[in-house]
Hints:
Blueprint: H1 3-18, H2 24-35, H3 53-67, H4 71-87, H5 97-108, H6 114-133, H7 160-168, H8 173-185, H9 189-193, E1 200-201, E2 206-210, E3 216-220, H10 223-235, H11 256-270, H12 278-291, H13 296-303, H14 308-314, H15 319-329
Antiparallel strand pairs: 1-2, 2-3
Helix pairs in contact: 1-2, 1-3, 3-4, 7-11, 8-10, 8-12, 13-14
Amino acid sequence: MKTEEIIIKIIGKLNLLYDDKINQQEIRLILEEVLYNYNIKPKEFALVPRNNMQDMMMLFLTSKKIEGASDVTIKNYGLNLSKLAYDIQKNVENITTMDIRIHLANYAKTGVKNSTIATRTDILRSFFSWLKTEEYITRNPLERIKNIKVEETTREPLTQEEFEILSNGAKTLRQKALLHTFYATGCRLNEVVCMNISDINWDKMQLTVLGKGNKERIVYLNARAKIFIQKYLKSRDDDCEALFVTQRKPIKRLGNRAIQREIKQIKEQSGLKRNVYPHLLRHTYSSTLLSRGASISSISKMLGHKNLEVTSRYAKTTDYNIEYEYRKYMVG
């Protein structure tokens, strides 16, 4: 058993025990120093080796956690890899390209979209690439698997009129604060879930959020969002640190599903005849900024994107945007 494997397992167990309150880097350095001169070999419990897929999954997910992957990402990776482990009951070093092809073909037969199959393929590719880099396998069965072709679909953002109709459908203070927080900040669903009251700088109308890869960034509140949030907070009599909480006791942080249901409820109350969900509000945020003259690079930073290509799929360019740019720069 490699020293790195031992270190990852120890850190993984400590994370579960202490709820991520440990300094992973310090513990890693200490373990590397202590174990440097030791050659550790596993104790054999059985003559026939058992399937090592679950162990490899745990090591991989722990490694991703150490690298800063979000809890949502870790959960998604775990679910997809568990399906593979159930379908192909082999040691990782014995899994072939044909095994993967049959697994993906069976998954496609369930009627899922190409984009969903592509996501699973990417996760498997990441997993087996990690196994090869860490020298648990000598051959990556995904190397000959081609990327799934996915048709790019553009989500049509809400118009200003549609958003006002939606806003009128928000009846409770929590609904008003929640809807306008999404619209004003352009945050991801999980970022809104994790918001705390202490993250808000009321004077600067700013919010510090923890995005993908545990990277902090500043987002901004507009006047309406600030007013609705303050009214909502004044209506509460709990001491929970979360910005959005449940209505029934025990009071706790509002989760992903609960927020999704709340947005759906607002949409139904408004009478708007189209589907509305948190990520559409993020698209609406970016397209609204673009239509009002914000640069794509600024929008990219506000959304927490790593590159402009991702942002360009969010910020829909309209004829109005094109005319705005022409009138702005082509004078005379």
